[in-house]
Amino acid sequence: MDKIFIRGLRARGVIGVYDWEREKPQEIVMDVTLFADLEAAGESDDLGQSIDYSALAERLLAHAETAERLTVEALARDLARICLEAPGVVKAVVRVEKPAAVPFAQSVGVEIERVAGSFPKNAEV
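Above: the chain sequence. Below: its structure as tokens.
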């Protein structure tokens, strides 16, 4: 299976369970790896047969900046669902980090893997 990845996508959003975390946006760093068959895109050199990672990155940023989730786990799940909505994506690995969450740590976060069909068709993100 082929992969497309987006590394170090940075957003500013409200995330966290403590009052001070809910007062103002903080930095959120996202990495995603998308698994898909990219053979046709490689053969044709046609973006229409691939995954438009620029458009996907915009959707991920918009969601991270407006979701106001309590946990990074919930945000990661949201982002995985958005990734799997892209046509052709069969699996997504999503990593979400909060660089300023823990003193003396470079970053903390979660990484999840989800496959196509992991989410109900009518559920909202």
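The two ends are 26 Å apart (CA to CA).
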